[in-house]
Amino acid sequence: MRLKVSPIKKPKHDGAVICVSWNNTEDVFSCGDDHKLIKWNLATNECMTIATFPDELYPTGLHLFPKINNSGKKSQTDFILIGSTDGKFHIVNYNGRIEKSINAHQGACLVALWSPNADGILTAGEDGCVKIWSCNGLLRSTVVESDVSCYMAAWSPDSNSILYTKRHHLIIHPLQAKSKITKWWAHESVILSVGWNASNNLIVSGDEDGYIKVWDTFQQLIFTTKEFVHPCTSISWSPHGDLFVAGSFNKLSLHSDDGWPNSSLDLDVGSVYCVAWSPDGTQLAAACADGHVIFAHIIDRTYNWKNFTCTQIGRKVIAIKDITTDESDQLDYPDSVVQIALGFDHLAVATIKQCFIHKLTSWNTPVTFDLKDGAVSVILLASRCMCIVERGRLSVFSYTGRLLASPQISSHSESRGRASISLGPDTLASVDHANPTLVHVYDLPTATYSISRGTGDNNVTKIKHHTVVCSLALSQTGPINERQIALLDRRRDLLVATVKDPKQKLSVLSRAVFSIMWSTESELLVGLKKEAIVCWAYQKNNTRPELTTTVISIPSSNMGHNPSIQCVENGVASIYRGKGSTVMHISLGVIHVEMVLKYIASNMWSEALQLCRTLKDTKLWGCLAEMALEKNQLDIAEEAFEEVHQYAEVFRIQHLKNIRNSSGNA
């Protein structure tokens, strides 16, 4: 994965460009020390000067009013917020006319940002003050007063908190009264740039010494790197939250969300003062000190599934190949490719206008349907359906392009990330954005289980946890009434529940787990722990610690920093090592365990018993014992528990059989 810069032409600004911001996927606004507001159209490769501001207006930042699904705010969507060195912020319309100028700070107004929910304005200045304003420019509160300049600030994704810098410190200040303020020493030098990820709630910061650090909101350091020789002057997360880009003197670097650099660009443009992503996350614009506004897009993203691999080799071109037959093809699309998903015998490609579903057996005859907004952030695939996240809205489609469900989710959910959603063959799970301790599980219509398209309360199961849920995963096999869900909370506890269980209870399966994934072929759950990969073949009985025969642990000390599981198929786990490079494939040694699970799922008890007798493996007998007892196969359970030397269970089963026989004789 790397950035490709469009050809750089003669600069249109007469001085340094200080700020850029996207209006849509084609229009970009820039402003600089020449007092000009310029609009760029990437479709026609034209630019025009919208306005020339007064000589005393030197911009420090530019932010367009956020595009949100709120008709009540529609009248304000054509306004631009500009901060300036004279301590003011200005509300400007798209024609360049200044509607309002507000005196905000003594000294320069270094930060001026609309809130993500379009309900307020955040400013920070050289005078050390951080203030909240209404959208009309009325002061609501002075959040911070300090004798130290605040160089950078940012809104939280839910608009309920702000993040600001104070020399070497990062500070999270909730806007609710009497809420706890979080402050920590983040860098050894002055912090110049910050960004708050709307998808996974991570924070990235850059300092004067060129260090870049990634944090969570609990002050834990995720990653640090000395990326630049010169100060890190700008940072910006992609709208999808899976990447961020950082700028410095004559350099741009692209990083994955865990901080590892994917690629870097050496430029000849001076310092990069501002970087901004397009709404679809496929392009970025950078404001440069020599008067250039440069544009770049991402290429060479690679996706793999079984024997298929596909690579985005251009903005509108994907190369796909079957490595077993060496058959390959090049797929061209009419618009820029936004998201790609490969799996379950299908390739799904979302552009800014349409979604294309290719069968891997016939690449050139895709199913096509139109998108509402074209801002697709996530595509999830399952065996029977696919889910698209478009501006926070969830839509589930069949592979024939038919809309199956559009669950109604909570407001302010534009930041819905991949970790907070999971798709099964007949269910969809989503963490409630407004209350992240709550998980909604929606039933989906399938060929064997028909429900209405509307997602009323009868088709929604709510799972409540006592702390924040960070990620979740639905099992991929079995009937809907046995569908299981695994959760990871912010303490890294792994919890499992059966969705349709009337006595639904979240049971702690393990602790200190970093990543989880279900096998696509059986009820095998795989998790990553420190220097180990752990497989749980049976998750429903975790109250007896002596029964560990259904847990398989594979030592592994080469998983890198902050690893995550991409998929589990054919007994092989594909693990992203977190080093911005490769995905490693590790055999779990669970082929026979999965065979037993498949036999039991198909009610083939004699075949499962014969396999265990042949291989004489304790893990197989343990799985068979637990599941036979659950399914009331007492004879098989008795033999299996005897093989794993759990004689207390053998005596209990014999007692149950005697009771059953006595009842039968009576």
From TrEMBL:
SUPFAM superfamilies: WD40 repeat-like
Keywords: Cell projection, Cilium, Flagellum, WD repeat
Mapped WD repeat ranges: 102-134, 184-216
Domain of life: Eukaryota
Name of protein: Intraflagellar transport protein 80-like
Domain IFT80/172/WDR35 TPR: 620-662
All copies of domain IFT80 second beta-propeller, residue ranges: 300-584
Localization terms from the record: Cell projection, Cilium
